[in-house]
Amino acid sequence: MSDPYQVLGVSPSATDEEVKAAYHKLAKKYHPDNYANSPLADLASEKMKEINESYDTIVNQRKQQAQQGPFTGNPYQGSYYGYAGTQSQSSSGFSDVRSYIRGGRLADAEQILDGVPAENRNAEWYFLKGTVLYNRGQLEQASNYIGHACQMDPGNGEYRAAMSQINGQYRGYYGGYNPSVQNNRSDMDQACNCCGNLVCADACCECFGGNLIPCIGCR
Amino acid sequence: MHLFGYIRPQKPELRVREYEAYRAVYCSICRVLGRHYGIFSRLILSYDSTFYALLLLALQKKYVPCFAGGRCAANPLKKCMYCTNAQPSLKQAAALSILLSVQKLQDDRRDRGRWPRCRAFFLLPFLHGAHKKAAADFPWMEQAVCTCMRQQAEAEAEPDSTLDDCAQPTAEMLSAILAHEGGTDTEPLYLRVLQETGFYLGRWVYLMDAADDVEKDAADGDFNWFVRHYQVTKDSSPEKLTEVHTFANAAMNLTMSRLCAAFNLLDLNSFASVLRNIIELGLPNMQKQLLFKKETK
């Protein structure tokens, strides 16, 4: 196994807090949510495993060194190994399609789906078709199909979860730009402008004999 | 559908040394363009080719960049740094920018906009030799670009093509171009990450280009998926344009989520921080500047 410190990107002299912070950052980056329905999920899960193991190794090493430390073990233990087990066990008329999708055999999955006559296409059909398209990168179509599945069967948690994931991605929670989030820089611009405006206003006042910001030396 | 300066870093967030390294690679591509493909090819220098060169260099396991001082070719009074040990990657990036620019100009020649058509007629003869040479140096690249153009024309001719159909050719082109780097001695897992990264980067660029050109294409009557779908005309209200831009931004965000996921799995060495800046900050900033700030200018 490679050096656990290198995996987390911290130096061996880093404090426990720094190690923890680095671990949290990486765990967030490779979180299964970011790779839901992505063909790269297996790689991300490997990466996640490596990160978890590295963190555990460091924690254990340090525990041994200093019998009592602030570390409380891996907070993500267990909950983060969720890559394989997230498929819901809902009763499915398309179990073969689901297993093809899980195995990455998208063409086979799509062939079966396309063979279903239009009158037999239920909510699950739309959901799975959307999942195949999402995997393949046809994201807008995927979103339409999964949205349609939600409309046909509003009570289904699996479809709703997929849709809310996509909506989060639309809003820019997983990268991109969200216009409704004001970032700090533009706030700062306004603050700077505010000072500038005051100075201008003062200069104008002084032209006409007034004084908005009294000068300390003139008193 | 063309890479035209959308892939750039967010400068205020770069360290000075990172910015200097970025600049040095940019200037080096300019020099390589001049040396290998004639001085006129310098005119088409772009930020996108810099990104491509940085990525090529970052993917090399044992590469450590070396820089040396020199003078700018366009302005001898200006000093600049050059990257001295990256010739093959720089040449590859230079070739890509030539191939894409020539395709773009040939495309412009068929478009209805008057100014792009003039520019294309003027520039193309000068780039003819460079294009031939670049295509001979990197035939696989030329093939990817030509396939993209052909499929793009097909997708645009289709009266009910979806946004995904229109974005597909560019996405697949970049996917193929990046996949070329996973070809030789690396494992297939790595190849998949490269393909995925290229695919969503290409898709993002297509969406950005189309969204950015909505007003221009509506005025000139050229194909643009957003114009067709939302029936934008040159008299459309600002509210309509905002609606289109908001939709495009959401589609780009969805693409970005997949791009970031794939990009995070790449094994990058030198220039990793600059590349991360470009993907995580530069591209979102482009969305902000071009889709939400333009009206207020």
Largest sheet of chain B: 2 strands, antiparallel
The secondary-structure element order of chain B is: HHEEHHHHHHHHH
**Overall 3D shape of chain A:** elongated
Rounded to the nearest angstrom, the radius of gyration of chain B is 19 Å
Broad structural category of chain B: mainly alpha
Give the structural class of chain A.
mainly alpha
**Strand residue content of chain B:** under 5%
Per CATH, the class of the domain at 103-172 in chain A reads Mainly Alpha
Radius of gyration of chain A: 27 Å
What is the total tally of β strands of chain B?
A: 2
Q: List segments of chain B where confidence is low: pLDDT < 50 over at least 5 consecutive residues.
A: none
Output the helix-strand order of chain A: HHHHHHHHH
Helix content of chain B: 55-70%
* Percentage of residues in strands of chain A: under 5%
Mean pLDDT, all residues of chain A = 77
**Regions with little confidence, pLDDT below 50 for 5+ residues of chain A:** 68-89, 184-189
> What is the first-to-last residue Cα distance of chain A?
73 Å
What's the pLDDT, averaged over the residues of chain B?
88
Quick recap of the structure?
Chain A: InterPro entries: DjlA_DnaK_co-chaperone, DnaJ_domain, J_dom_sf, TPR-like_helical_dom_sf, TPR_rpt. With 219 residues, chain A is an all-alpha fold. Helix content of chain A is 58%, strand content 0%.
Structure description:
- The complex is a heterodimer of chains A (219) and B (297).
- Among the domains of chain A are: 2-64, Helix Hairpins; 103-172, Serine Threonine Protein Phosphatase 5, Tetratricopeptide repeat, CATH 1.25.40.10.
- Chain A is mainly α and 219 residues long.
- In chain A, 58% of the residues lie in helices and 0% in strands.
- Chain A has helices at residues 4-8, 16-29, 41-65, 95-102, 106-114, 123-136, 139-152, 157-171, 184-207.
- With 297 residues, chain B is mainly alpha-helical.
- Chain B has helices at 16-37, 47-58, 87-110, 114-137, 139-157, 163-179, 188-212, 214-220, 225-230, 238-263, 272-292, and strands at residues 67-71, 79-83.
- Chain B is globular and about 55 Å long.
- The model of chain B has no long low-confidence stretch (mean pLDDT 88).
- The A-B interface holds A 29-30, 34-35, 38-40, 43-44, 47, 133, 137-141, 143, 166, 169-179, 185 and B 12, 162-164, 168, 171, 189, 192-193, 196, 199-200, 203, 246, 249-262, 264-265, 280, 283-285, 287-288, 291-292.
